[in-house]
């Protein structure tokens, strides 16, 4: 097991380096630089001066090595678009709203989705099942900016129960959290339903029933545990997907989160921030898959030993 | 003890909750862009902190009728030879930390702008024509050679390379920089609310950097003209998109909102008295790489000029958000000339003839071209993509040619334009100062498009330094005639913004001007100091 973890960590480190090189090269191969003026050209002298100030006049490999040397010391540089702080400070400031919203969204949406999926699986082809399928399909197919718009229209404009958008008062969190929660809710409802139906049809369930085990014990102790693997697979990546902020949800609800920085850092060629955000995502996904792997092992002893059934 | 604490706590909460409701009036408005680096207009214009210009007092600014009004200056005068301007500042102006505001702060602002990589530095050469500006920004001359001098605490002297009769209007973008703060903290003075000082009608209370929204309060130390009538002002760029702004407005979270075309009928029905229009002093036009085929042929360019049905374009696809452009100058702008505009007709026969003269009868043999436009937000974002598709269909129908469309992010589009990586572009431009030289300057001596037309340059140079206004306007009309004859651009449309304003906002600021336009945040100093909230 420990050897397995070490191998995984080494592969994470390797992925990290490869990804950093790819991102760095792609970032610099896009035309236009951070100090190309929007409307009128700045004089060459001035541009050269600014490029030198940020070390952008150096050869690419030197810039890359300098950056990565900084990364090793947890120094991600200073964002071009917010020179008064470091990249780390910027991310830790802007991440808070995204984490609150995305985190709550997953923590509320996932359990609700599981419950809905279970209810659907246990009452197959009933109205509950149809309702769950409808909710799941709508939740996955309607884009978030449409959902946001509808929520604002219903709860803020027509009913006037909640503010339309803004930050930081907690009553302004409610609508974006609902918006965020819909995706895990829909995803989980679907996954849970199909995983449970799959498990319920397996012979061991029939055996358990034949042994006279109560339906509750069968469902919660056996069926759920056996259905949990696909749920674990989607949980952490989904958590990352929402916790890093959605540009749409944040724009619609005027949340000062991290989402917009993903776009703006690319748009204004904010190399330092762009690298840091991409590395952050890479790191989080690697970590998520590592943790998921460990969770599989806990849930299913067959994975732990690496053996066959 | 516990009970006492509870009572004290309760009282504190009650006071906190009731105090703001007592007297404070807060206006919440859309404004600016969601990214801002420095809260210092004289450090960066394109990436500025929201409202950084409102924090400072310019030398002069415009009221809603576009009359130039002295602000920090009390008066100005031009020397006999027309080359030197002397600005007398008002006495008693101070920075919000109590330091006196002096001529030195204005001179320092421009000296720093010329030397430290100011993204708007071109303006002071292009618009201001300040002596030595080009040399200093290019690093070939010392900053002391600039035509700028603080004669005493209240007197500024500016020398220009040629007579600039409109120079005072250029100073509407000349804001002071607190030299005492820069000496202490460098450019970083404009990064933290705790260090930012202001000289204008508002002071800064908070700045959310993640979306560049700010809260300003009425300045206690400001003694200049136009004191604010509201206590607090929240400028929030996240409200700029009508899709976000209007719902917030309807829910009472914003005091006005810009509207997209779909929203106009709904808002007009609900708030017939709250609708405000503004003809932005801006123009969208087609520009070319004049050296590259097929647009190196004047006949091709003239064919394009006559192939656009501007009326149809602005009454169908761009309904309510743009008006036809027949000139680079928008209506109401100084120098606007109806004779020039009248020439921009839709004439398919003429267009076809010009294309045939160029050797492409009915578009036969015309190479496939791709028009590049810049991805943008705001009014341009609403207009340009739809317009590009219209042009594509129109050019196919009238000229029989295939036009592909490509949208590019700002830096790539600019890179393409500067590096002549494509041969045809849709370019938008919004005025920077109120004088025809502004718009004609974008094609002068290379300018924005790398156009070098000696005949045009000669007329524009003459017009720029002409002191008789009628003669000037005549010269500019001549310059535009050169543009038309040589087909240098195709003027397409002038954007119009439409907004809905809450009836709680009153005052001169929200009353339309004599042309029927309400400027809202585009003349921020005037607008935000001339509104009240009930």
From TrEMBL, chain A:
Coiled coil: none annotated. It is a multi-pass membrane protein. Residues 95-292 form the ABC transmembrane type-1 domain. Pfam families: BPD_transp_1, BPD_transp_1_N. The chain crosses the membrane at residues 12-30, 99-122, 134-161, 173-191, 228-253, 273-299. It comes from the Bacteria. It is found in: Cell membrane. InterPro entries: BPD_transp_1_N, MetI-like, MetI-like_sf. CDD domains: TM_PBP2. SUPFAM superfamilies: MetI-like. Gene3D superfamilies: MetI-like. Keywords: Cell membrane, Membrane, Transmembrane, Transmembrane helix, Transport. Belongs to the binding-protein-dependent transport system permease family. This is ABC transporter permease. It comes from Devosia oryziradicis. The lineage of its organism: Bacteria, Pseudomonadati, Pseudomonadota, Alphaproteobacteria, Hyphomicrobiales.
TrEMBL record, chain B:
Keywords: Signal, Transport. Its main location: periplasm. It comes from the Bacteria. Pfam families: SBP_bac_5. InterPro entries: Peptide/Ni-bd (IPR030678), SBP_5 (IPR039424), SBP_5_dom (IPR000914). The keyword Transport applies. Residues 67-448 form the Solute-binding protein family domain. It is found in: Periplasm. Residues 1-23 form the signal peptide. Belongs to the bacterial solute-binding protein 5 family. This is Peptide ABC transporter substrate-binding protein. It comes from Devosia oryziradicis. The lineage of its organism: Bacteria, Pseudomonadati, Pseudomonadota, Alphaproteobacteria, Hyphomicrobiales.
């Amino acid at each position: 097991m420990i050897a397995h973890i070490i191998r995984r960590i080494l592969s994470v480190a390797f992925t990290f380096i490869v990804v950093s090189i790819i991102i760095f090269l792609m970032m610099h191969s896009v035309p236009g630089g951070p100090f190309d003026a929007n409307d009128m050209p700045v004089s060459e002298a001035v541009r050269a001066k600014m490029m030198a100030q940020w070390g952008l006049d150096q050869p690419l490999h030197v810039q890359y090595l300098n950056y990565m040397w900084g990364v090793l010391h947890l120094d991600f540089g200073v964002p071009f678009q917010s020179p008064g702080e470091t990249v780390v400070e910027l991310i830790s400031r802007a991440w808070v709203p995204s984490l609150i919203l995305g985190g709550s969204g997953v923590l509320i949406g996932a359990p609700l989705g599981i419950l809905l999926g279970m209810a659907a699986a246990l009452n197959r082809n009933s109205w509950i099942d149809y309702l769950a399928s409808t909710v799941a399909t709508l939740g996955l197919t309607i884009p978030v900016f449409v959902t946001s718009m509808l929520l604002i229209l219903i709860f803020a404009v027509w009913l006037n129960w909640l503010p339309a958008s803004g930050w930081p008062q907690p009553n302004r969190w409610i609508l974006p959290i609902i918006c965020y929660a819909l995706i895990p809710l829909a995803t989980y409802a679907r996954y849970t339903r199909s995983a449970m139906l799959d498990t319920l049809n397996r012979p061991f369930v029939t055996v358990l029933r034949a042994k006279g085990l109560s339906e509750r014990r069968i469902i919660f102790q056996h069926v759920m545990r056996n259905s949990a693997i696909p749920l674990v697979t989607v949980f952490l990546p989904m958590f990352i997907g929402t916790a890093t902020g959605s540009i749409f949800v944040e724009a619609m609800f005027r949340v000062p989160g991290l989402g917009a920085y993903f776009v703006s850092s690319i748009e204004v060629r904010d190399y330092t921030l762009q690298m840091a955000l991409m590395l952050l995502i890479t790191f989080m996904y690697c970590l998520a898959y590592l943790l998921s792997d460990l969770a599989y092992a806990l849930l299913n002893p067959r994975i732990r030993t690496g053996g066959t059934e | 003890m516990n009970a006492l604490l509870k009572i004290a706590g309760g009282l504190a909460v009650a006071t906190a909750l009731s105090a703001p409701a007592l007297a404070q009036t807060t206006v919440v408005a859309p404004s600016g862009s969601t990214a801002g680096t420095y809260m210092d207009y004289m450090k960066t214009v394109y990436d500025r902190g929201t409202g950084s210009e409102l924090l400072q007092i310019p030398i002069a600014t415009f009221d809603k009728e576009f009359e130039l009004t002295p602000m920090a200056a009390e008066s100005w005068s031009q020397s006999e030879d027309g080359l030197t301007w002397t600005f007398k500042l008002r006495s008693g102006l101070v920075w919000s930390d109590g330091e006196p505001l002096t001529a030195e702060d204005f001179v320092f602002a421009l000296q720093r702008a010329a030397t430290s990589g100011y993204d708007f530095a071109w303006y002071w050469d292009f618009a201001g024509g300040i002596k030595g500006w080009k040399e200093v920004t290019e690093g070939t001359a010392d900053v002391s050679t600039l035509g700028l001098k603080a004669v005493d605490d209240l007197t500024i002297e500016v020398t220009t390379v040629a007579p600039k009769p409109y120079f005072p209007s250029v100073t509407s973008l000349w804001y002071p920089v607190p030299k005492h703060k820069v000496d202490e903290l460098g450019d970083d003075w404009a990064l933290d609310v705790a260090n930012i000082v202001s000289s204008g009608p508002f002071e800064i209370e908070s700045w959310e950097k993640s979306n560049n929204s700010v809260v300003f309060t009425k300045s206690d130390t400001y003694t200049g003209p136009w004191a604010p009538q509201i206590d607090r002002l929240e400028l929030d760029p996240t409200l700029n998109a009508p899709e976000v702004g209007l719902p917030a407005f309807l829910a009472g979270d914003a005091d006005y909102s810009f509207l997209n075309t779909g929203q106009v009928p709904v808002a007009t029905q609900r708030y017939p008295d709250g609708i405000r229009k503004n003809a932005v002093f801006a123009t969208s036009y087609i520009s070319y790489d004049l050296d590259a085929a097929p647009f190196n042929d004047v006949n091709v360019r003239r064919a394009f000029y006559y192939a656009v049905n501007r009326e149809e374009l602005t009454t169908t696809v761009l309904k309510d958000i743009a008006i036809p452009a027949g000139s680079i100058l928008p209506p109401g702008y100084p120098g606007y000339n109806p004779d020039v505009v009248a020439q921009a007709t839709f004439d398919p026969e003429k267009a076809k003839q010009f294309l045939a003269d160029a050797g492409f009868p009915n578009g036969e043999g015309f190479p496939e071209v791709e028009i590049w436009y810049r991805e943008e937000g705001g009014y341009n974002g609403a207009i340009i993509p739809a317009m590009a598709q219209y042009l594509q269909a129109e050019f196919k129908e009238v000229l029989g040619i295939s036009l592909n469309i490509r949208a590019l992010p700002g830096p790539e589009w600019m890179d393409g334009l500067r590096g002549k990586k494509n041969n045809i572009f849709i370019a938008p431009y919004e005025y920077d100062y109120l004088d025809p030289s502004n718009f004609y300057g974008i094609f002068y001596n290379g300018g924005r498009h790398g156009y070098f037309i000696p005949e045009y340059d000669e007329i524009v140079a003459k017009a720029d330094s002409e002191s008789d206004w009628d003669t000037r306007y005549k010269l500019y009309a001549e310059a535009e005639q050169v543009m038309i004859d040589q087909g240098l651009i195709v003027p397409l449309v002038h954007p119009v913004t439409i907004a809905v304003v809450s009836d709680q906002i009153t005052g001169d600021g929200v009353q339309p001007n004599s042309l029927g336009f309400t400027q809202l945040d585009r003349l921020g100093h005037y607008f935000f100091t001339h509104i009240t909230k009930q």
